[in-house]
């Protein structure tokens, strides 16, 4: 209850607002603001037939909004480690503004398979830099349009991070992993900057990952170069 009260007091444009809650026996019901366009996950993988592939500029807008929400949670004011950051927890309003949901309520130590940072998988240690790793995974999903784990793909391409990682450092090979549905919508410079940022977030050592405010700054600069040249 104390945790829910605390989360209910948090306000940021990129967090889904907790409107109320109800406790009945051992069940807990949370009421959030309505997010009309569903989740980022819905759009990337077209979970509803009518959804069209997100264009590059909207993808970068969503990435920046999610980064701002995560940076706020990590701030000295709140000091919240998300723990379960993934594409299904990034919700979109009518204008495709990204808002984070379920922050700070994870009952498990760390999030879903494929999003968890190496240090958690190794020793169970979770910090704000673990969230940065998870953000890097989501950014990779945004860039590639692929799922974190997809066994329908050829052997060697099942795990997104393992498959895409080697391509991120090569300008020549990078375009092979960008979602083909958005070909021609971005400049080569923007693609390189986005891939470089994802690679930094996915660093094996937490100390080499950027902070979320640094990620926000990088994405803001990236938006300036996202216009096709």
UniProtKB/TrEMBL annotation:
GO terms for molecular function: ATP binding; protein kinase activity. Pfam families: Pkinase (PF00069). Residues 1-222 form the Protein kinase domain. Coiled coil: none annotated. InterPro entries: Kinase-like_dom_sf (IPR011009), Plant_Ser_Thr_Prot_Kinase (IPR050823), Prot_kinase_dom (IPR000719). It comes from the Eukaryota. This is Protein kinase domain-containing protein.
